[in-house]
Structure formats: structure tokens, C-alpha cells
């Protein structure tokens, strides 16, 4: 069976087992490739789809693949962004200029990392590590939400060190690559090579280690790599979207190793930092925008710098294509039209997305029950109806089972605060919004 056929069969088999919206969002754009009779790779367009598939649908994927191929196969999920999409994480890998698969993308440096209150502690730690690798802060564990600059900072350290010393001892690798290398080393009986490669590192950078969750073999191998490198005073830098204590299915011994180094977090950037980053990106790309327009853009996204950068890029391209001046009204109208791209977004769709995400019923949202599992989704719904749909608190209260408008106000303000403080809530908000944005 060729891969196109395999993909079609696979999707057909998956479809009845998941909701229509889930299917459309997470499966429809995936592609399958049979590597050999023991391994299937599922390519998905976004890191979000990958995370969701890993977290919630891996057993289904494995079962379906096994039925199709009539054999137990390992399923790997890999991001392969569409060409017309904005840069994804994978773009951080350098184009293969050198022979090494581990070369760092030189674009991300400590010098062009903009420092503000949200990231200054992490930045100071990064500088300390770059100056004295392997001594005091080992490992350096950087955590924070999506698109806040973890990978950039990590590569910045790697680049700073490889400038000073032999660069071939610096290994950057996504946790996914480590996992894949481990799996294929087992299959091809190349464990010795794998160990030799990773343990030769003078600096080891492992990105997004939360994906090690539940991978017992990988964790075991990494534990030994870790000990070996630490004994040699080789510096390790690890990033994650959450602190080790919150990574599920992570061995305690790894957790305590990570806690034995320095743990720093990066918060979503405040307004001034966002403006400063936009300014820096403009000048890097050889463009300039007036301060007031940068401020307009900065106020349009709060959480992710990646998202902000994407908007900036689109705006610059649109201005150029339509030959417009970067006047505030042009930018504002662009930001508005890009917000209003989905005029059909209704409160019912918000209900639908929230219910699917939390796996609850519509009547749970609108009903009187006050369990914790229902209250948070309900409050998040209120927040989204207010912030994204611009509905009045009175109307929101009415649609959510006749609740008082002061309740709605209270809930909205609480969620607004939590989104800035609490990573779990932040993630839920981002994911529900992503799910919403895929509804058409
Ligand atoms: P994460 O790994 O946390 O998801 P990235 O490191 O990939 O985020 O950052 C996303 C984008 O935002 C990158 O293009 C990066 O250069 C940019 N970025 C993030 N933080 C900063 C910063 N402090 N200064 C300059 N650019 C930044
Ligand atoms: Mg990253």
C-alpha cells in the first residue's frame, strides 16, 4: 500500500471514532508514512495538533495503525508545517549547512533577545550559563507558555558558547528527535552509536521535554545520558512548557535531577516588552514602522510572541503588496479585518468548542451545577463571549442559563487575571481559541 492510500484508509478508519470537529482540526490534514513494517510516522501541520494527538489520541492512532497494517507498529507524530504557514518551531533548525544534524540556527542569539520584566531572570541565568557552562547551573531548566522565547533563549546560549569554543560539542535537539533517535537505535541495534553521539556533547540542549511524558524507554535512556554528562560537567539546558512537577508521567528521578539545577520561567511579555520586540524584529527584517503602529500591533496579542511576530510579518507584507503607508489607520483596519475574518463566529460555536475541549455537555455549561470541573469551563466561556465576541455581560448571563450580570463580570475578570498568572488556564484558553479558529 502506498502512503497516499494508507493515509486515506487511516483517516477513514479514524473518522467514526472521534467527533467531527476533532477530526477536522486534528486528523484531516495529517499524512501517514510507513517507515518500515515496525514504524509509522504521522505528519501533522502544527505543534498544537501534535501535542493534542499525543496527549489524547495516541492509543487510537496506535490501534488504528495496527489494524491497518495488521501488525503492532510504533507511531511517531511529527510536525511538518504547510509551506504557506508562518514559521513553526521546526524552522529553528538551521538549514543543513554543515554535516551535523544538530547545528544551531545562528539567527537566535542572546544579543537579539529583548529583555523585559517577563524574562529578565531567565535571561540573567542564560548569560551566567553562557559565561561559565557546566559549573553552577546544571541543568538550566527554562519553562513557560508557547511562543514566549524559550527556544530562542536556549539557542542564544548555544550560539554564544559555540562562538567561543569548538562548536561541534554543542548539540541542539528537540525532545522528539531524541525520542526518534532512541527508537531507531533500538530497532537497528545502534544503541552504542546513539550513546556515543549524545554523550560526546559538551553542551546538550533539549527542547520541549514535556513530550517525554509517558515515554518510559526514552526517559530511562535520557536519565543515563544526563548522569553521564553531569559527571563530566557538560552543560545541559532543557526547556518545557511547564515545570517538571507538572509534567505527567515523568519519572521521579528525572524530576529531581531537573530540580537539582536552576529552574527559571518566562512569562508572557508585558506591553512595553512587546513593543520593544516588535521594534527589534522590524529592524532585523530591514523595515521600520512608526511607534504608534507598533503599539497597535502590540496590543492585539498578549500571550505569544510568535503570534505577534506572525501578525507583524503579515502586516509588512500586506503594506508592501498594496503599496500602503504604515499609517495607523491602515494597520488598524488590517488588524480589524483579520479579527473579523470569521464574522460567523457565534456563541454557539464557543459553547461547542468549550464543551468539546472539556468533554462536557451544553447543559453543564448553562445548568446550575457548581462543581469545579464545570465552573472553570463556564467562566472561560463567559470570558471568551465577552472578549472575543464583544457581548454584554447581561446578554452573556442570559445565554448561560439566566445568570446575574455581576456573576459574569466577576468570572470574566477572574479569568483575565488567571490567564496572566496560571499556565494551565493560559493553555486552556489558547487551545480553546485555536479550536475555535479552525471552525469555519
Ligand atoms: P517558545 O520556544 O517559547 O515557544 P520561541 O523561542 O520559538 O518560543 O519564540 C517565538 C518567536 O518569538 C521567535 O521568533 C523568537 O525569536 C521570538 N522571541 C521570543 N522572545 C523574544 C525576545 N525576548 N526577544 C526577541 N524575540 C523574541
Ligand atoms: Mg520552542
UniProtKB/TrEMBL annotation:
Q: Name one GO biological process term.
A: regulation of DNA replication
Q: Spell out the subunit comment.
A: Oligomerizes as a right-handed, spiral filament on DNA at oriC.
User: Where is the protein situated, by its record's location annotation?
Assistant: Cytoplasm
**Which source organism?**
Candidatus Daviesbacteria bacterium RIFCSPLOWO2_01_FULL_39_12
Q: Which GO terms describe its cellular component?
A: cytoplasm; plasma membrane
Q: Please give the residue ranges the record annotates as the region Domain IV, binds dsDNA.
A: 320-440
Family per UniProt?
Belongs to the DnaA family.
Q: What is this protein called?
A: Chromosomal replication initiator protein DnaA
The record's annotation in SMART domains points to: AAA, Bac_DnaA_C
User: Is Cytoplasm tagged as a keyword?
Assistant: yes
Give the superkingdom in one word. Bacteria
Q: What is the lineage of its organism?
A: Bacteria, Candidatus Daviesiibacteriota
Q: Where is the Chromosomal replication initiator DnaA C-terminal domain?
A: 346-415
**Molecular function via GO:** ATP binding; DNA replication origin binding; lipid binding
Query: Which positions fall inside the AAA+ ATPase domain?
Result: 136-268
- The UniProt record gives the binding positions of ATP as 147, 149-151
What is the role of the protein in this entry?
A: Plays an essential role in the initiation and regulation of chromosomal replication. ATP-DnaA binds to the origin of replication (oriC) to initiate formation of the DNA replication initiation complex once per cell cycle. Binds the DnaA box (a 9 base pair repeat at the origin) and separates the double-stranded (ds)DNA. Forms a right-handed helical filament on oriC DNA; dsDNA binds to the exterior of the filament while single-stranded (ss)DNA is stabiized in the filament's interior.
Amino acid at each position: 500500500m502506498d502512503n497516499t492510500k494508507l493515509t486515506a484508509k487511516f483517516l477513514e478508519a479514524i473518522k467514526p471514532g472521534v467527533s467531527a470537529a476533532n477530526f477536522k482540526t486534528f486528523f484531516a490534514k495529517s499524512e501517514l508514512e510507513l517507515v518500515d513494517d515496525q514504524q509509522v510516522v504521522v505528519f501533522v501541520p502544527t505543534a498544537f495538533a501534535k501535542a493534542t494527538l499525543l496527549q489524547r489520541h495516541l492509543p487510537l492512532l496506535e490501534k488504528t495503525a495496527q489494524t491497518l497494517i495488521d501488525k503492532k507498529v510504533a507511531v511517531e507524530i511529527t510536525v511538518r508545517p504547510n509551506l504557506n504557514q508562518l514559521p513553526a518551531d521546526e524552522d529553528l533548525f538551521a538549514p543543513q549547512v554543515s554535516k551535523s544534524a544538530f547545528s544551531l540556527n545562528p539567527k537566535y542569539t542572546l544579543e537579539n533577545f529583548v529583555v523585559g520584566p517577563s524574562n529578565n531572570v531567565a535571561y540573567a541565568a542564560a548569560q551566567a550559563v553562557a559565561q561559565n557552562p557546566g559549573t553552577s547551573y546544571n541543568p538550566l531548566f527554562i519553562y513557560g507558555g508557547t511562543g514566549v522565547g524559550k527556544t530562542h533563549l536556549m539557542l542564544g546560549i548555544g550560539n554564544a558558547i559555540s562562538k567561543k569554543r569548538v562548536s561541534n560539542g554543542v548539540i541542539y535537539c528537540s525532545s522528539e528527535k531524541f525520542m526518534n533517535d532512541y527508537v531507531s537505535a533500538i530497532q537497528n541495534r545502534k544503541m552504542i552509536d546513539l550513546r556515543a553521539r549524545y554523550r560526546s556533547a559538551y553542551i546538550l540542549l533539549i527542547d520541549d521535554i514535556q513530550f517525554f511524558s509517558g515515554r518510559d524507554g526514552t526517559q530511562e535512556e535520557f536519565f543515563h545520558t544526563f548522569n553521564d554528562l553531569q559527571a563530566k560537567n557538560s552543560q545541559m539546558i532543557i526547556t518545557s512548557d511547564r515545570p517538571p512537577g507538572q509534567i505527567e508521567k515523568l519519572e521521579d528521578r528525572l524530576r529531581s535531577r531537573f530540580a537539582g539545577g536552576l529552574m527559571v520561567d518566562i512569562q508572557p511579555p508585558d506591553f512595553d516588552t512587546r513593543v520593544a520586540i516588535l521594534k527589534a524584529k522590524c529592524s532585523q527584517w530591514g523595515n521600520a514602522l512608526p511607534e504608534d503602529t507598533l503599539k497597535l500591533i502590540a496590543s492585539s496579542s498578549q500571550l505569544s510572541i510568535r503570534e505577534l511576530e506572525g501578525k507583524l510579518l503579515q502586516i509588512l507584507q500586506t503594506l508592501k503588496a498594496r503599496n500602503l503607508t504604515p499609517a495607523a489607520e491602515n494597520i488598524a483596519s488590517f488588524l480589524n479585518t483579520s479579527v473579523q475574518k470569521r464574522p460567523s463566529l457565534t456563541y454557539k460555536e464557543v459553547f461547542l468548542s468549550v464543551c468539546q475541549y472539556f468533554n462536557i455537555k451544553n447543559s453543564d455549561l448553562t445548568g446550575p451545577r457548581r462543581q469545579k470541573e464545570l465552573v472553570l469551563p463556564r467562566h472561560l466561556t463567559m470570558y471568551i463571549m465577552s472578549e472575543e465576541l464583544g457581548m454584554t455581560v447581561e446578554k452573556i448571563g442570559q445565554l448561560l442559563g439566566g445568570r446575574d450580570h455581576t456573576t459574569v463580570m466577576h468570572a470574566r475578570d477572574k479569568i483575565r487575571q488567571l490567564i496572566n498568572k496560571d499556565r494551565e488556564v493560559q493553555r486552556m484558553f489558547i487551545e480553546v481559541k485555536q479550536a475555535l479558529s479552525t471552525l469555519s
